[in-house]
Specification:
The protein is mainly beta. The chain has no helices and nine strands. Strand 8 and strand 9 form a beta hairpin. The radius of gyration is 17 Å and the shape is globular. The chain starts with a strand and ends with a strand. 6% of the residues are buried.
Length: 147
């Protein structure tokens, strides 16, 4: 992850993240890469810390099977705000091409992020799909521990 700048009064924060997934199976071939653009901007001057976000990712499937895409994208438009000093509300819209050809999903999600202690974060979210190809629902649970 590389952060290009700090957010200013008029300029959002911009960052770029890169990821490489190496296959660990004897039957798997190649590697998959992801390049993600991240933008975040605070709005207003409230103690609730309202922020908007945009994440755009390009994913490359190095050894795509016949029924898979070689390249596909993932877009997220989001909003978050503080509910308490430890908890944040997160709302977002996801548009993504799935790895399988001809599959695209649109999902509206809501979640909570809780700062359990200075080094640990818990997260939970639920989403509902919009459209025929989208999943009916998505449940997300997360735990983050800083070292």
């Amino acid at each position: 992850l590389y952060n290009f700048n700090q957010e200013t009064l008029w300029l959002p924060m911009f960052a770029l993240a890169a990821r490489v997934d190496f296959n660990t199976s004897d039957q798997a071939k190649g590697y998959d890469t992801t390049l993600k653009f991240i933008m975040s901007k605070g709005i207003g001057h409230s103690s609730l810390l309202h922020r908007i976000h945009f994440n755009g990712a390009w994913k490359h499937n190095d050894s795509a099977r016949e029924d898979e895409r070689k390249d596909y994208y993932h877009l997220v438009f989001g909003y978050d705000r503080r509910l308490t000093s430890e908890m944040m509300l997160i709302l977002d819209f996801v548009r993504e091409q799935l790895k399988e050809k001809d599959q695209t999903a649109n999902i509206v999600e809501a979640g909570l992020r809780y700062q359990w202690n200075p080094l640990s974060v818990l997260a939970a979210g639920v989403g509902a799909g919009i459209g025929e190809e989208s999943p009916d629902f998505r449940l997300t649970l997360g735990f983050q521990r800083s070292f």
